[in-house]
Amino acid sequence: MTMFPVIIIVLIILGIEFITGIIANGLMIIVNFSEWIRNRELTCCDIILTNLSISRFFLQCTIIINNILFQLPEGIDEWCAMLRPSTAFWMFLNTLNLWFATLLSVFYCVKIANFSQPLFLWLKQRISGLVPQLLMGSFLVSLVTCFPSINAIESKYIDHSMNNLSGNTTQECQHKFDLSSGFFILSMLGYCTPFIIFIISSMLLITSLWKHSKRMEKTTSSSRDTITEAHVRAIKGLITFIFFYISYFVALLMFLLQLSTISSYYLWSVIMSAYPSGHSIILILDNLKLKRVAVRALHYAGCRLRDAVS
């Protein structure tokens, strides 16, 4: 009974995060899709953003559905049977989301950073043409590493009626991960690999900014050049990106490795749901095209609300 108010508060927060994420990611999908219809083409950055938004849109839906299923009465075998495939699909969307977000970070790093290494220069010239293949590769890697892990998810339907002294019927649907399973280890590699790549690309971008700033200090130019401004804009977005990414990754590991208690599970759920909505808002604010559309949409919604009130 003491957990009931906490559950209500968590569900309200998850609902707010869900609505925010759906609106933010839906806005990016609609804007980029409309531009593709008009011009029959999108920039590489917009292609990555669109795929990232689509994956986050479905991820938000899966998170809220799983949390609803988790709160439903445990007396129906069908609900317990649904948790296993829905959890596997959630793991797939998590991995896909991490890969797409990492690909966006790598794209920014390659386009903005300046290094003289031959491999980096080769990648800088060809990254735009490799975007479709990288997106498809991310999808296939996520599929290979996560869907087989459904065999590592153990679902148990437990009837506690015999042990209940009050005579009330209590049932519980439990599902946990077999941490010793090779499928689960493969899935964990699917989570850790994009995280490591993300950290490396972030460090490279920060290093590039530091080296460029040192070079600019030796020149007589007093105004910041366009390269420095591009670095600074990318770093500003990257700081919030790192915060959301690391907090999401830690919460995800705590949940999958079953290191959390029942009470902390709700905290991890709020953190995991905050990432796909909060970072999408940051992406909109950093994109002039998306920001302009969002401001117009908010202005229109505000006018409609004032008209309804009056």
Automatic annotation (TrEMBL):
Q: Mention any one GO cellular component term assigned to this protein in its UniProt record.
A: membrane
Q: Which UniProt keywords apply?
A: G-protein coupled receptor, Membrane, Receptor, Sensory transduction, Taste, Transducer, Transmembrane, Transmembrane helix
Q: Where are the transmembrane segments?
A: 6-31, 89-110, 130-153, 184-206, 238-259, 265-285
Q: Where in the cell is it found?
A: Membrane
Recorded topology in the membrane: Multi-pass membrane protein
Q: Which residues form the signal peptide?
A: none
The Gene Ontology terms for molecular function here are: bitter taste receptor activity; G protein-coupled receptor activity
Specify the superkingdom.
Eukaryota
Alphabetical list of InterPro entries matching this protein: GPCR_Rhodpsn_7TM (IPR017452), TAS2R (IPR007960)
Task: Tell me the CDD domains matching this sequence.
Answer: 7tm_TAS2R
Give start and end of each G-protein coupled receptors family 1 profile domain. 24-284
| PANTHER family in the cross-refs | TASTE RECEPTOR TYPE 2, TASTE RECEPTOR TYPE 2 MEMBER 40
> To which protein family does this belong?
Belongs to the G-protein coupled receptor T2R family.
- What protein name is recorded for this chain? Taste receptor type 2
